[in-house]
Write the structure tokens for this entry.
Amino acid sequence: MADTKPAISFIGLGAMGFGMATNLVKEGYPVTGFDVYGPTLDRFTAAGGLAATTPASAVEGKAVCVCMVATAQQAQSVLLDSEHAALPSLPQGAVLLLCSTVPCAYVQSLERQLAERGRADVHLVDCPVSGGAIRAADGTLSIMAGASDAAIDKGRAVLQAMSDPAKLYIVKGGVGAGSNMKMCHQVLAANQILSASEALGFADHLGLDLRSAGEALVKSDGWSWMLENRLPRLLHPEFKPIASALTIILKDTSIITSEARRAGFATPMTSTAEQVYFSGLGRGYGPDDDASLVRLYTEGKGKVGPVQGTASTDDEKLKLVIDLLRGIHLCSAAETIAFGQHVGLDLDQVFELCINAAGGSRILSTVGPSFLKAFVEGKAQGGWAAESGSGEATLQSIASELEAAVNEAQSLKLPLFLGSQALNLIRLGLKSAGAESSKQAIGSVVRVWATS
Amino acid sequence: MADTKPAISFIGLGAMGFGMATNLVKEGYPVTGFDVYGPTLDRFTAAGGLAATTPASAVEGKAVCVCMVATAQQAQSVLLDSEHAALPSLPQGAVLLLCSTVPCAYVQSLERQLAERGRADVHLVDCPVSGGAIRAADGTLSIMAGASDAAIDKGRAVLQAMSDPAKLYIVKGGVGAGSNMKMCHQVLAANQILSASEALGFADHLGLDLRSAGEALVKSDGWSWMLENRLPRLLHPEFKPIASALTIILKDTSIITSEARRAGFATPMTSTAEQVYFSGLGRGYGPDDDASLVRLYTEGKGKVGPVQGTASTDDEKLKLVIDLLRGIHLCSAAETIAFGQHVGLDLDQVFELCINAAGGSRILSTVGPSFLKAFVEGKAQGGWAAESGSGEATLQSIASELEAAVNEAQSLKLPLFLGSQALNLIRLGLKSAGAESSKQAIGSVVRVWATS
């Protein structure tokens, strides 16, 4: 049945694109690849693909085009603006799967540009992916696809070939909704990559053994997918192997904060993370693995003293680090859910996607339903649900525990960029409740972000 | 009439204390000094003072004791806890002027400890000072004094001898109120010391000539007392002379954020500044002048490219830097005023003190009255005044201009810790106003902080 599969053009054969394209070859698709870097094309033909020397010649006669370049600027160039751009050669009624992570604003402008150039016939699918190079090559990516029903139908077989069956999310809202979903997920990624460094740096100043502390944190309520994933590199003396460079997550934070500005939405957590990432970039850490940002937290240890913390036992110290992570993850989850609501996403789908992806955290799993309830009940009652369920931790208790961590770090004189931000945001969430704050449900912290 | 002046003991002859004590000598007071550092005592006797070898012997028989040590811990030690502590030797009914900058919590605990030790007879005055070593030696400091009426009466002559006649503020609220007033002022100081570095770092990445940019900024709406004061050191290749070390402002941020935690109050601006200060400390910049923090912003310039900003002319670039400063100073002013309200200070007095001191900024002078109005009218109406006066800039316009600066910095890949924080806070302030935000008065941004 391989001969019933349509010919595909594939533009952008980088770390992710190469794996995705060769997987499609294995699945029996005739795939014609294009990349600006010649040696990659040789590797691709060796893997059974066909090579094209321009975007235009790649797409000619192919009913499906997958575009997996690194940025919106590159997409604009290869699809529309460069000398041998793809669009004029794209067949009538073709499907264009834009898998690059781009701002919602860009993919929506691309849809408009297609119409303005008389190519409304092109079935554009906004379908960023997540999962890394290995899952790309295995055809088990997470994919978040927003498009017209017709475009989804035409693109579905190829989307399925590239994704894990349980992780192909058709996102309601058309072109732009896929990018918005990815963006909201990356709010978690951006904060939790940095929280892993912040936690290990704090543990280091506390004098904990980092290896055993790391193992304990991964089993604790401070768990995040990112912490577990970055831990081996955090513990490596040179933060090796380089699996995800600082510059990669900076592309995402740039999309998040620029889209937030466009939407008039506040992203205090991600903006904080972004400034720290820029600091790392200024230090020359751009090409290094993002786990190496722990260096921004460990420097000065033993040199800014005398310093004197209050925690004496390892258990007390570990609890401070766990409470730091819980507080940060609570606020990054709140920022994610509130941003999703602001851009009109289905919050149940945001939650389901995030807990099963690289943005997952123990706190998100436990508190996420309370966030969704806060939105639903808040809307229904014209306010915000403020009663916590019986036995549930209150926002005040989370604040008190985070406060102890921030207090200790102040005594030890190390920065906790995300932790101190989270504490202030929780304080802002608590303040409007006044005397009733002791009864406030954790989920109600989203009121800081949410448009009431 | 010099012989009618009472004998004074003076504990703590550091950079500030030495000037204050020798000024009192010049004013005709018999002053007995104590300091842990012997050579200082020799200098003090050479300047006409008397020297004591313990706090106890210094205060013996003196109706007035001035304490000007560096921290609350030192005050506790010299006054109460050390082997030859002052208290047991302090005469009945003596005045104790605590001029050190300490947390409100500490000076109030000192008042309790005096009572617990049966020394409620001591007239404690909580009177931190501001103004630097030169004004200390001239007897023209700003002093913020909180105490009982009786204690103020007894201490007034010495307070007047140390201060500028227009800058002796008797703060309502008793012991603790003076420290709270100083703390609120230092919110401005802490943010505006750093905003000067952030602005110059931004100007550097924009490619502006720093000397002419600095001169233009000082004349602009981005003016702050700190910017003008730090500018020569910001422009000096080695940030010399060292006039105020990073470690000095870190003592103040520590008081601000720890008192905020105690009060359940959010200080998102000062907390951000504090984390950046901790970063500088970790880099080894602790003993350097605080203007040297511009290094945290200038590094990476020319190395993280290719970067491409949007501003092309010097006027456009300068406007971005001014708009950055305006946004930061707006939010640091809001944090100051709201914190003052939270701890029960007279806001008119907070405003008057701050515009005439090192916390002054053009924005505070113009917007401060709108903040005070927002509190008064907000309270009166059970909400927040939202109508801007005719011709006044709106919060939305401030946000848009700050947004352009943050956007440009993102393109140039440098951190704007305070600027991005301020933008998010203004966004939070705008969000509850919804469609009416275009009419929102600038002063209404305080609603983010204020307990409603």
Summary: The beta strands of chain A are 8-11, 31-34, 50-51, 64-67, 95-98, 123-126, 129-130, 141-145, 163-170. The mean pLDDT of chain A is 93. The longest strand of chain A covers residues 163-170. Residues 2-175 of chain A form a domain with the Rossmann fold fold (CATH 3.40.50.720).
